[in-house]
Design brief:
Length: about 100
């Protein structure tokens, strides 16, 4: 077991020295963001699979538009165009505070 842990640690160190190419890194980020938008839409009842969304927006179904709109919002929020503070009544504090659940969680 100790030998396996040493091998694993050596592999981890070797991987830390290898930098992924910018193209690979961008593809990983794009796929991660797409999955994040898809799963956010699934919370709202969207039934698309990753494969259906990854195929693009060639058929503009409502479900696909929902996922791609979430992507647009993400890009806007993290862009330089986005305001740093939102002035909207819904963004104001409500006076409620978070407390542990009934099981003391």
């Amino acid at each position: 077991m100790e030998d396996l842990l040493r091998q694993l640690d050596a592999l981890r160190l070797a991987l830390e020295l290898v930098k992924p190419s910018p193209i690979v890194e961008e593809n990983i980020r794009r796929e991660s963001l797409l999955k994040s938008a898809l799963y956010s839409a699934k919370i709202e009842g969207n039934r698309l699979s990753y494969e259906e969304v990854a195929s693009g927006l060639n058929d503009q179904t409502r479900a696909k538009l929902e996922v791609f709109n979430l992507l647009k919002v993400h890009h806007f929020v993290y862009s330089k165009k986005s305001p740093k503070r939102i002035n909207h009544p819904a963004a104001e504090p409500t006076g409620y505070e978070l407390r542990p659940g009934p099981l003391g969680e």
